[in-house]
Amino acid sequence: MERAAVFDVDGTLVDTNHLHVTTWWEAFRQAGHRVPMHAVHRAVGLASGDLVARLLGEDRDKDRDAELSAAHKALYGQYFDRLPALPGAGELLRRLAGDGWTVVLATSAGGAELGALRRAIDADDAITATASADDVSAGKPAPEPVEHALELAGVPAERAVFVGDTVWDMRAGSRAGVRCVGVLCGGLPRADLEEAGAEAVYADPADLLASLGGSPLA
User: For the chain, first and last CA: distance in Å?
Assistant: First the structure.
């Protein structure tokens, strides 16, 4: 039977979370908002609109949300030519594909950003499809991104594993009914990932690859 390995990208396969923190912080600063970096870090992984709402609240000037998102996108775009893959990212995807897993990415990135992330991972030969936040009505922690990834893979939830680095990933995967694996390379504590639904937690893709035989992806 087919089985699917669904992966978040930012902070899971590519070392970008702190770039997102810095560029969101600068976008907020330019717009006159003082938002602590630790609060931005906790919100990374949400879709742009949800991130802004979480950090600025419902009483913000919502007409400026698009301006904030555009500023972040422009600032982050300066790094597209040098985004660093996390250790073992490409090797892990190719190993899973070779073992018969259908590998699908589930990310809020799209367009040029997604292209830059895929170039960093350098494992297009192992990736069957990509589920973007643009393809669904709600981003993580809603289950839709993971459910869409399963549709693309043609695999039921009970035959899938979702790997991510944030509580939003774990909640989305749990709500979609898949087994969840967390990685610490996004910067969040193990306890937070486990509380949000991670069945197992590894340091990074290289650690997961080295521990594959005893993992939910065995």
Answer: 15
Pairwise CA distance, residues 16 & 19, whole Å = 5
- C-beta separation of 162 from 178 below 8 A: yes
Q: Per the omega criterion (within 30 degrees of 0), is the bond before 141 cis?
A: yes
- What pLDDT, in 10s, does the model give residues 112-153? 999 999 999 999 999 999 998 778 888 899 999 999 999 999
Residue carrying structure tokens 């499809």: 129
For the entire predicted model, the pTM comes to 0.96
Residues pairing with 171 in the sheet: none
> Which DSSP helix (H) or strand (E) runs through 4?
strand 3-7
Tens digit of each residue's pLDDT (9 = 90 or more) over 33-61: 999 999 999 999 999 999 999 999 999 99
The answer to whether residues 87 and 53 touch, using CB atoms and an 8 Å cutoff, is: no
Contacts by 67-75, CB closer than 8 A, 24 or more apart? 67/31, 68/27, 68/28, 68/31, 69/27, 71/26, 71/27, 71/30, 71/31, 72/20, 72/23, 72/24, 72/27, 72/48, 73/113, 75/23, 75/26, 75/27
Classify each residue of 93-130 as buried b or exposed e, where b means 16 or more C-beta atoms within 10 Å of its C-beta. bbbbbeeebbbbbbbbbeeebbebbbebbebeebbbbb
* CA separation for the pair 149, 50 (Å, rounded): 20
